[in-house]
Amino acid sequence: MKKNYRNVFIIFLILIFGCQKLQQNYTEKEKEMIKNEVKEQFNQLISALNNLDSLAWSEIYSKDEFLSACVSTDFYANRGEFIDSIQHYFSLRENQHVEPLELQISELTPTLVLMTSQEKTEMRLKSDENIKSKHVYTLIWKKEQGGWKIIHSHESWITE
Q1: What span, in angstroms and rounded, lies between the C-alpha atoms of 117 and 104?
Q2: What is the pTM assigned to this prediction?
Q3: Distance of CA 20 to the CA centre of its chain
C-alpha cells in the first residue's frame, strides 16, 4: 500500500512540475494581441452566421484539433457531423442577424483561449416563422498554422 502512495505522489509531482513548465510568461502587449486576433476571428464567425455562409462558418472550426461541439442538448464529437447538422439548420433559414452584446476573452496560454459571449439573435425561417432569442457561446480557440480556430464550442439560447 505504501508503494502505491509513493507512486501516486511521484506522478503528482511530475504533473505539477510538468504544468509549471507549460506556463509561459508573455507580456501584456502579447496578451492584448492574442485577444484582438481571436476577436477578429469571432467577428468573422458572426459575419458568416449573418450571411448564412456555412462554408465560411465551417472554416473557423479546426480541421486538425476539433474536440467537440454542443448545440443546446445535441453533442458532436465528430467535426463532419457537426458541420452537416449546422448546414441543415442554415438551409431552413431565410435570413438571420446575430448581434454580439457581450464578449469575454481569457488567454489561457499563448496558443489557447477561452471565450464567452452573449448575442441577440433574430431569424426568419423559410416557413415564415420569426424567432428572437438570447444566445450564448462558450468557445475554446487554439492557435494553429492557419490562425485561431475553434476546437470546442457550446451554444445555448432561450427564445424571447
Answers
A1: 6
A2: 0.83
A3: 25
Q: How far is CA 59 from CA 6, 106, 127, 129, 134, in A?
A: 47, 22, 28, 29, 25
Task: Calculate Rg over the CA atoms of the chain.
Answer: 19
Class of residue 138 by CB neighbours under 10 A (exposed 0-12, middle 13-18, buried 19+): middle
Q: Answer yes or no: are the C-beta atoms of 117 and 104 closer than 8 Å.
A: yes
Q: Which helix (H) or strand (E) holds 92?
A: none
Q: What was the pLDDT predicted at 21?
A: 45
Task: Assess contact for 105 and 97: CB atoms under 8 A.
Answer: no
* Domain boundaries along the sequence of the chain: 28-159
Distance between CA atoms of residues 102 and 118, nearest Å: 5
What architecture is domain 28-159?
Roll (3.10)
| 45-91: pLDDT as tens digits | 999 999 999 999 999 999 999 999 999 999 999 999 999 999 999 99
Q: Round to whole Å and give the CA distance between 58 and 131.
A: 23
